[in-house]
Amino acid sequence: MTSASPAPPVITFLSDYGHYDEFVGVCHGVIARRCPTARVIDLTHLVPSHDVRAGAILLRAALPYMPVGVHLAVVDPGVSAVGPHGRRAVALRTIEDGHVLVGPDNGLLMPAAERLAGVAEAVDIGESVERLQPVSRTFHGRDIFAPVAAALADGQPLAAVGEPLEPAQLRRMAIPTAHLGDGALTAHVLRSDTFGNLILNAANEQLLAVGAEVGDALSVAHAGTHHTAAYAATFADVTPGELLIYEDAQQMVSLAVNRGSAAKLLGADQDDELVIRPA
Amino acid sequence: MTSASPAPPVITFLSDYGHYDEFVGVCHGVIARRCPTARVIDLTHLVPSHDVRAGAILLRAALPYMPVGVHLAVVDPGVSAVGPHGRRAVALRTIEDGHVLVGPDNGLLMPAAERLAGVAEAVDIGESVERLQPVSRTFHGRDIFAPVAAALADGQPLAAVGEPLEPAQLRRMAIPTAHLGDGALTAHVLRSDTFGNLILNAANEQLLAVGAEVGDALSVAHAGTHHTAAYAATFADVTPGELLIYEDAQQMVSLAVNRGSAAKLLGADQDDELVIRPA
Amino acid sequence: MTSASPAPPVITFLSDYGHYDEFVGVCHGVIARRCPTARVIDLTHLVPSHDVRAGAILLRAALPYMPVGVHLAVVDPGVSAVGPHGRRAVALRTIEDGHVLVGPDNGLLMPAAERLAGVAEAVDIGESVERLQPVSRTFHGRDIFAPVAAALADGQPLAAVGEPLEPAQLRRMAIPTAHLGDGALTAHVLRSDTFGNLILNAANEQLLAVGAEVGDALSVAHAGTHHTAAYAATFADVTPGELLIYEDAQQMVSLAVNRGSAAKLLGADQDDELVIRPA
């Protein structure tokens, strides 16, 4: 019976707006006015303020689990810059699956788009007919991104909401990559999650490539100090308080402390380099 | 195709319930039982606890961006008071656009209603047939406000959910107003947002009226200290760490620090008086 | 008019995932892919990390206010344990009202189920055909619980999403109970809410049974210290800063400080014993 109803269009929404102010709710309201049937899924609004890279990594991680739809992302420290230093506002369609991404052209959208085989089509939406006028200088989420996302969810094509833009002109984002050498894996902290787990930029297979096997003790060098971590299949394989390294839910490698915080134990922060090798 | 589905009724929801407890979710459940098709938009639930004025200012700021619908707002320090000191529970319809507001009669709803030309009709819902019985003494959001809001979203008229009440009997809220004099603008802090921007109670045109122009340096006197702020069009016009004053997303005046916190720099708090003049 | 639309299926969702990461949003996405018409109500995602009992108490408190539907709950410290120490993943249907609960078999679901007359039918969903493969070791919310909940909301019977399990095999949860004796009520702190109110495991009628009446002063002994609390009907019956004891919104007894925090005043924590008697 429920399958008789058509699936509503989906808009996912990620930002650094936080929950303290009305910003997120106002964007939901703007969406509901333009596309009343859209279902909005909040990915997270607690991206660290102005941290475009953290937002890009979160969006890339979440997108494979989302329905095909419109994905609105706003982490936008350059919102109020104009002229030669200004950033574009853009909407783009991915080659794989035809997801539509909407946000500032500051790199935020690109790691997610690249995971979906890149950009098939892009438009500059800074002067979109869908924008709310007058456009404020500081709240483009409300005035440009949300109404354009809603129009796209309502079925408008990209060409109707902006000016054509060569995909090659979109601003890319550099994210450090892990590498193998001297019998060790040199990796970096992408970010730490709410439990203090340190999410690294290395695939589990890279760890296997340095000769490590689940059950081994590994040496983890960070900022001049050395730690020993158990290469474990599960948290339960180590005692509470013990450091472990494991294949996380993204098939990547993470460091954790069973019922504790690896971020605190190591004192590690985003982009920190870790050198991991069999102990 | 998506436009074939009728627009679901919308209920917006603002409170000081926070996210730690199940209060917000329980109200959503109560709404879903009474009006299963209603879409609920959470404006914010992090209004500072019991701060009716902060809630009123947030509601007033957000409402112009919401679809026409029912707006549920609960910041209710007097929830459990009864008798002569008790506050009413009310629902009202605005003259402009016919928005329906539901909440305690403690001033919370009135700044928003006044922005929409005032109150056309009001009812006392304390004994509403829609309330959940037994009504608890401490959780009227669940027992009175949410079910009444859901009934109104489901199409019930005001007269069906409460007893008629003269709009003149509704409790107003005093919010300080800015004024011009001696070549200066005397304004007040309405609140600070999540970025530490100080939102003032002055319109941008009042700042222009003291002879200030974008690009000028302005003197900002607060609590015996003086600061210099750049009257800027955009954050990018000042260097990181610099104080600026600008027209915010509400066409009002705000103080900010580029990539910093004006609230911290000035040590300013709600209702603090600021005297602003050309430097 | 709105009543012409069928009620969408409802999934409520409680977890300790927090809002900082994308975990909650990813589960919403997984649900939307499997059952696009489902409406998801977030009960709370700020259950203290790994605190199964706090989650169980919150779920039990909230469920009576929810529509009949599917209730997804994930507080799962044993997620990655396998073999003899592993916990099952389960879905169950309650005897009363036919609510469906989905989550880990660690006691989390049982207090809520017992309030609804117990479990009519249960299945082990660890190897469900609905799970997302490969199943990660650490994020069963995404890979098992959310897709199974969505399938159930879409109308699948329990038997189609898991293997039959005797309800008697489900893991129970012990929650301390209050008792009367020596003219006193011995109660315990279940948890403290966001306002610092201490929610006790005693019904208001148990307090009446020791001879207390609203208006009395009561003695509250805790950790070797004694406090006096007013047995009040409402917060407004005591002066700001004063300790009161009252019948809360669940018909249970709570301790509060008018415009303050009882948790801070008493320095009380979960499971602490309180002995309450007429002063």
Describe the fold and architecture.
- The structure is a homotrimer of 279-residue chains.
- With 279 residues, chain A is of the alpha+beta class.
- Helices cover 21% and strands 30% of the residues of chain A.
- In chain A, helix 1 packs parallel to helix 4.
- The mean pLDDT of chain A is 92.
Outline the fold blueprint.
Three copies of one chain form a homotrimer.
Chain A: E1 10-15, H1 23-34, E2 39-44, H2 52-62, E3 70-74, E4 89-94, E5 100-104, H3 110-115, E6 119-124, H4 140-153, H5 158-161, E7 163-165, E8 179-181, E9 184-192, E10 198-203, H6 204-209, E11 217-222, E12 225-231, E13 243-247, E14 252-257, H7 262-266, E15 273-278
Parallel strand pairs in A: 1-2, 1-3, 3-5, 12-13
Antiparallel strand pairs in A: 4-5, 4-6, 6-7, 8-9, 9-10, 9-15, 10-14, 11-12, 11-15, 13-14
Helix pairs in contact in A: 1-4
Major sheet summary line of chain A: 7 strands, mixed
Number of strands of chain A: 15
Low-confidence stretches of chain A: none
Mean pLDDT of chain A: 92
Largest interface: A-B, 41 and 36 residues
Task: Give the percentage of residues in beta strands of chain A.
Answer: 25-35%
Order of helices and strands of chain A, N to C?
EHEHEEEHEHHEEEEHEEEEHE
* Shape assignment of chain A: elongated
C-alpha termini separation of chain A? 59 Å
Summarize the structure.
The structure is a homotrimer of 279-residue chains. Chain A is α+β, with helices and mostly antiparallel strands and 279 residues long.
Keyphrases for this structure?
seven-stranded mixed β-barrel; 30% strand; 279 residues; homotrimer; seven-stranded mixed sheet; alpha+beta
